Amino acid sequence: MRRAGPYDGAVLVKWIRCTVVDRQAFEEEQRKRTGLPAEPGFRGQGGGWSKVHPEVAHVFAFWDNRVFYDSFMARTGHARAAARRATCRDMQVKLFEYRFDVKTGFEPHFTDADTVRVAHSQVREDRVDHFALMQQKVWNPAMAGSPGMLRGVFGEAPGSEFLVLSMWASGAERGKYRPSSVDRLTARAETEADVEAITGDVVRLDPSWTV
Q1: Residue 161 burial by CB count (10 A; 0-12/13-18/19+): exposed, middle or buried?
Q2: DSSP 211
Q3: According to DSSP H, which parts of 86-205 are helical?
């Protein structure tokens, strides 16, 4: 894949989540993405299987901006969507605009990571600024100081939706981010006052899906 430097402008983060009904066909389809690095504006893609729900797959892709992404989808989106529909159900596709790093120097590559933690939050409209500030002031320093945490990204979508994506060197290192610490940080950040709903997952990356 094309290695990219740290982000310095608007970047699009795409997150696909689906329940796979034909695992072999789905994995074969993921391995056919070798042409992506030649696409203008493409920065990187990776994904894998949920550790909590083994039949659930996640794919994360990064583009320089919406213009490049929309051009790509206009040419190839129909065929790609049809291929995925044939192998999975309950597919959710969400796009987020990059806001800031979770730990400095984010790069959209997956080759050194084993595990991804994804958190998706629906935030109360009047608490959006506070939620973003607490991510910077409370959550980011805690995550950045955790052993094995490599890098991450904080993104925003219309409708007060936010994505926190963090990459870890191993699942064991991610496991050291203990529930007691999370509870303490949640209280300090007043997360319950900020969010209407939050969902998350831990993903074991499949190296053969990395582009």
Answers
A1: middle
A2: -
A3: 128-134, 140-144, 171-175, 179-189, 191-194
Quick check: 108 and 40 in contact, CB under 8 A? no
pLDDT value at 1 more than 80: no
- pLDDT tens string 159-204: 999 999 999 998 766 666 655 578 889 999 999 999 999 999 999 9
The model scores a pTM over 0.70: yes
The tally of CA atoms less than 13 A away on the side-chain side of residue 34 is 4
Task: Identify the CA nearest to 91 among candidates 144, 14, 184, 182.
Answer: 14
Rounded CA separation 149/59 (Å): 19
3-class state of residue 8 by DSSP: coil
Residue indicated by tokens 């496991």: 175
User: Of the candidates 80, 92, 93, 83, which has an alpha carbon nearest to the alpha carbon of residue 25?
Assistant: 83
User: Which residues in 21-54 are b (16+ Cβ under 10 Å) and which e?
Assistant: eeeeebbebbeebeebeebebbbbbbbbbbeeee
Q: What type of residue is 196?
A: E
Residue 121: pLDDT band (50, 70, 90) is very high
Provide the token pair at 202. 């831990």
Provide φ and ψ at 192, rounded to 5°: -60, -30
